[in-house]
């Protein structure tokens, strides 16, 4: 099972380059696609889903060019876009039957699959209720259910936890983890904590370029010894932010605690702290750095 992206670029008619010379090889497991809004995540996912074609390069699924033989990939693909529309007057079973028909699935097999998914996603008690009355988390579960109707080998989820409360986000992450044994799951988000909690590997994108593709812990460990916390006065914050890559700022009774990423000790009272994935994300996408990981 291999999804390969080779020398892929995407340029639009206004001469805007959304992706530039992108190279990835993805195997089963959860891959976190991390980047700011506009970094190129959605462009990449649309090309993987065969909604859009690359300007240059090729994407293959098990060696087959997906833009010349798209049906082979589409039969193996499940996709939950960021903006997922539902028919509010339909109940869960009716909606999933409708989606199964759109996907061209055998209806007898689809009905059995729908019942499996209703139970898997803990929707049995609400299965006959109108989707319009569902919570945000329940609607996301319906979205995952439609993406899983064809038992896909590739599952793409785009910003799946936006708008969910903390419990719903945790439940969603647990669900994704439970599905990852025999699938390639591409989790696209700018919410770093979701990636940190779920992904085995990280794809970090900035301004259409691949900054890194590595294991979660490798990216975090690359900042060992260069992350600091300092207590300072509020009046000094601007100067610090102008001169260093900075992260979280917390107001305390004794002053402001600021997180700084610097190769050398930034201030006399700076204390070395354990790096996080958020630190790595800030560091490798910072305008003050702007270089790929060695």
Automatic annotation (TrEMBL):
Keyword Transport: yes
SUPFAM superfamilies, alphabetized: P-loop containing nucleoside triphosphate hydrolases (SSF52540)
InterPro entries per record: AAA+_ATPase (IPR003593), ABC_transporter-like_ATP-bd (IPR003439), ABC_transporter-like_CS (IPR017871), P-loop_NTPase (IPR027417)
Tagged with keyword Mitochondrion: no
Pfam families the UniProt entry points to: ABC_tran (PF00005)
Leader sequence residues: none
Domain of life the protein comes from: Bacteria
Alphabetical UniProt keywords: ATP-binding, Nucleotide-binding, Transport
GO terms of molecular function: ATP binding; ATP hydrolysis activity
Stretches assigned to the ABC transporter domain: 3-232
Family membership: Belongs to the ABC transporter superfamily.
Protein name listed in UniProt: ABC transporter ATP-binding protein
Native source species: Clostridium muellerianum
Lineage, uppermost ranks: Bacteria, Bacillati, Bacillota, Clostridia, Eubacteriales
């Amino acid at each position: 099972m291999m999804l390969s992206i080779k020398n892929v670029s995407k340029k639009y008619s206004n001469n805007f380059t959304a992706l530039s010379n992108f190279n990835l090889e993805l195997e089963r497991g959860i891959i976190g696609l991390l980047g700011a809004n506009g970094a190129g995540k959605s462009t990449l996912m649309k090309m993987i889903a065969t909604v859009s074609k690359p300007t240059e390069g090729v994407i293959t699924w098990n060696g087959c060019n997906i833009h010349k033989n798209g049906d082979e990939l589409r039969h193996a693909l499940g996709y939950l876009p960021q903006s997922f529309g539902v028919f509010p007057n339909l109940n869960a079973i009716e909606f999933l039957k409708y989606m199964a028909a759109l996907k061209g699935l055998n209806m007898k097999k689809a009905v059995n699959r729908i019942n499996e998914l209703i139970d898997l996603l803990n929707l049995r008690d609400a299965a006959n209720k109108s989707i319009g009355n569902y919570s945000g988390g329940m609607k996301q579960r319906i979205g995952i259910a439609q993406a899983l109707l064809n038992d896909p080998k590739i599952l793409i989820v785009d910003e799946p936890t936006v708008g969910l409360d903390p419990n719903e986000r945790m439940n969603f992450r647990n669900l994704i983890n439970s599905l990852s044994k025999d699938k390639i799951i591409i989790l696209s988000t700018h919410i770093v904590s979701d990636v940190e909690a779920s992904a085995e590997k990280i794809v970090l994108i900035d301004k259409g370029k691949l900054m890194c593709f590595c294991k979660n812990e490798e990216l975090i460990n690359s900042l060992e010894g260069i992350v600091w916390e300092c207590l300072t006065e509020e009046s000094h914050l601007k100067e610090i932010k102008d001169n260093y890559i900075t992260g979280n700022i917390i107001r305390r009774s004794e002053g402001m605690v600021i997180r700084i990423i610097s190769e050398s000790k930034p201030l006399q009272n700076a204390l070395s702290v354990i790096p996080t994935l958020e630190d790595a994300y800030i560091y490798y996408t910072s305008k003050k750095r702007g270089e790929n990981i060695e």
